[in-house]
C-alpha cells in the first residue's frame, strides 16, 4: 500500500499553512509516504527548506506550487477564493517553466497578491504535471478544463480529498463526472495544511487573521475538524476504500517528477569579461572596480576580508 501526497502546504502559504516544511518532511517519513510535494500558494518559498530536510531524511520530494488563476481576482489570502491549479516539476525544463509562471503571476499583481491567466500556464506546460484541486465553491469551468487537457494531455489529473465534511460526497461526484467527460485521471490527496492535527488551533488563528475576525465570531467559517493533516497510505486507503486506483495515480505522478533542486547550479556566462582571464579572475576584477566606486577613499579592512572570503567560496564551488 503506497501513497504520495501531492498537495501539501506549509507556513509559506501565508495565513493558510500552519507547519514548517521540515515538520512536513519529518511527518511524511513517520507516515511512510512514498513522496511529498510541497505546493505552497503562488511561490516556491519553502522548497529549499524541504529539500534540505528531505536529503537528511532520504525522503523523495517534488517541487511544485499552487497557482491562483486570474479568472476572478479576490481579496488576498482568501482561502480557496478563486480556482487554482497545482503544477508539479518533472524535469529541469519544468522547473524553468514554473519559475517563469510564478514571476509573471507576481509581476502583474498588487503586493500580497498573485494571479496568472490560464492561457499562460497552457503555453508553458513543458516539463510540468498539472493537478486541479477540485472545489464546488469555485470550480474550473468545462472550457478551462478543456484547455488544460489540451495543453497537458496525460499529465493532467483532478484531485479529490475527504475532510469528513458535508460537501465531500458532492465534490467527489462532480470530480468523477468531469474526469469521465475529459478522460482525465483522478488522484487522491488529503490537501494538508499542517503536518499534525495538533496544529488545528494555530490554523484557526491564522484563518481568523486572514478573515479579519475573531475566534469567537468566526463560527462556521473555520473548518469543523482537524482532518486537513498530512496522512499516510493506510489512512488514505480508509478514506477511499473503493478507489485504490486514485492512490496509485499519486505514485504514477510522483514517479515522473524526477527533478531535484540539487540539479540547480548557476554558471556565469562564459563570454563575460576579458577572454584571457578565467571567470573567477574576471569576477574579482569587476568586484575591484565596484569597490573603488563604493569606497573612493579605500576599502575598509573588514570589507576586504569578507570579499576575499566570498570570492574564495565562489571559486571553490566552481560557479
Task: Write structural notes for this entry.
With 319 residues, this protein is an alpha/beta fold. It contains twelve helices and seven strands. The protein has helices at 21-30, 47-57, 92-107, 118-123, 142-152, 168-182, 200-211, 215-218, 233-239, 244-256, 279-294, 301-317; strands spanning 4-8, 35-41, 61-68, 84-89, 128-133, 156-160, 186-188. The model is unreliable at 73-80 (pLDDT under 50).
Assign an overall shape.
globular
Question: What is the structural class?
Answer: alpha/beta
| Global mean pLDDT | 93
Low-pLDDT runs: 73-80
**Strand sequence of the main sheet, in spatial order?**
1-2-3-4-5-6-7
**CATH superfamily descriptor of the largest domain:** Metal-dependent hydrolases
CATH topology of the largest domain: TIM Barrel
Termini gap: 43 Å
Q: Please give the CATH class of the largest domain.
A: Alpha Beta
Rg computed from alpha carbons, rounded to a whole number of angstroms = 23 Å
In sequence order, what are the helices and strands, one letter per element? EHEHEEHHEHEHEHHHHHH
Count of separate structural domains: 2
Q: How many beta-strand elements?
A: 7
DSSP strand (E) fraction?
A: 5-15%
How does CATH name the architecture of the largest domain?
Answer: Alpha-Beta Barrel
Report helical residue fraction. Answer: 40-55%
The main sheet comes to: 7 strands, mixed
**Number of helices, counting only DSSP H or I runs of 4 residues or more:** 12
Amino acid at each position: 500500500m503506497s501513497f504520495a501526497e501531492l498537495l501539501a502546504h506549509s507556513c509559506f502559504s501565508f495565513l493558510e499553512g500552519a507547519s514548517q516544511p521540515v515538520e512536513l518532511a519529518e511527518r511524511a517519513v513517520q507516515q511512510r509516504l512514498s513522496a511529498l510535494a510541497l505546493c505552497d500558494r503562488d511561490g516556491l518559498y519553502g522548497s529549499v527548506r524541504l529539500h534540505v530536510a528531505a536529503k537528511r531524511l532520504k525522503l523523495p520530494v517534488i517541487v511544485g506550487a499552487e497557482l491562483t488563476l486570474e479568472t476572478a481576482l479576490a481579496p488576498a489570502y482568501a482561502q480557496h477564493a478563486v480556482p487554482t491549479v497545482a503544477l508539479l516539476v518533472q524535469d529541469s525544463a519544468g522547473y524553468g517553466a514554473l519559475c517563469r509562471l510564478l514571476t509573471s503571476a507576481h509581476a502583474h499583481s498588487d503586493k500580497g497578491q498573485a494571479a496568472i491567466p490560464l492561457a499562460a500556464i497552457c503555453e508553458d506546460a513543458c516539463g510540468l504535471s498539472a493537478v486541479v484541486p477540485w472545489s464546488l465553491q469555485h470550480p474550473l469551468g468545462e472550457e478551462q478544463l478543456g484547455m488544460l487537457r489540451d495543453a497537458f494531455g496525460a499529465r493532467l489529473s483532478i484531485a479529490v480529498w475527504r475532510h469528513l465534511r458535508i460537501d465531500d460526497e458532492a465534490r467527489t461526484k462532480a470530480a468523477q463526472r468531469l474526469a469521465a467527460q475529459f478522460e482525465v485521471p483522478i488522484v487522491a490527496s488529503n490537501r494538508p495544511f499542517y503536518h499534525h492535527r495538533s496544529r488545528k488551533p494555530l490554523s484557526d488563528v491564522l484563518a481568523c487573521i486572514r478573515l479579519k475576525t475573531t475566534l469567537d465570531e468566526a463560527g462556521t467559517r473555520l473548518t469543523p475538524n482537524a482532518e486537513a493533516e498530512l496522512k499516510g497510505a493506510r489512512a488514505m486507503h480508509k478514506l477511499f476504500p473503493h478507489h485504490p486506483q486514485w492512490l496509485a495515480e499519486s505514485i504514477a505522478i510522483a514517479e515522473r517528477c524526477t527533478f531535484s533542486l540539487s540539479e540547480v547550479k548557476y554558471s556565469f556566462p562564459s563570454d563575460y569579461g576579458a577572454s584571457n582571464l578565467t571567470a573567477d579572475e574576471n569576477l574579482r576584477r569587476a568586484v575591484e572596480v565596484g569597490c573603488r566606486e563604493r569606497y573612493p577613499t579605500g576599502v575598509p579592512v573588514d570589507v576586504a576580508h569578507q570579499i576575499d572570503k566570498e570570492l574564495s567560496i565562489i571559486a571553490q564551488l566552481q560557479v
